[in-house]
Amino acid sequence: MAVRALTLLLALLLTALPAAACFGPKLYLGVAAEPRQELLFAVVSLYVQEKTGVESEMVPLAAGVDPAAELRAERVDLAFAAVPVSGAETLLAVAGYPLLIAGHRPLTDLQFTTVAPALRKLASLLTVADLHTLESRVAAGETPLAAARRLFKERRWI
Question: Which end of the chain is more exposed for a tag (fewer CB within 10 A), N or C?
Answer without folding.
Answer: N
